[in-house]
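Homework help board

Subject: predicted structure for assignment chain

Our instructor gave us this sequence and asked us to write out the predicted structure in token form, then describe one feature. I got the tokens but I'm not sure how to describe them. Can anyone check?
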Amino acid sequence: MTDAPATVQAHRSALRLLLTATAVYTVLGLAAGLFYREFTKLNGFEEGMPGQLAVSHTHILTLGMIVPLIVLALEKSFRLSASRLFRWFFWIYNAGVVVTTAVLVWHGVLQVLHADPSKMIAGVAGVGHLLLGAGFVLLLIVLGKAVARAE
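My token output:
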């Protein structure tokens, strides 16, 4: 049995989307590491001193590069894109990555500058984490349906 052209197109589109996200987040994650090193050095922030900025590049690389890379492999194996929820997962999850890591960098810059962070930071970070959580739930639903289809 061959797949319908629309399903094949959705699969190819999903693969390209995931690969593009992986590439973009790789560049952003590496740039965040470079920014951390240079910005802290420029502002006399002690090397090795813990802070939000110190973990921003690892968060961007893990959430933005490694997770989509794993989902890409799952898409190749299970055709997750056959579910209408796949696109919902992709965009909600990525919105969560962007919001969460942007707040992480913002808070980290304020720490380096010894500025008082706004209480709003926690609220915005919470929204980012909720989006990430919703994205993971959608991914698990999509994966569960794909595994059931494969059986």
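Reply (TA_rk): Your tokens look well-formed. For the description, you could write something like this. Helices lie at 5-42, 56-78, 85-112, 120-150. That's the kind of observation they're looking for.
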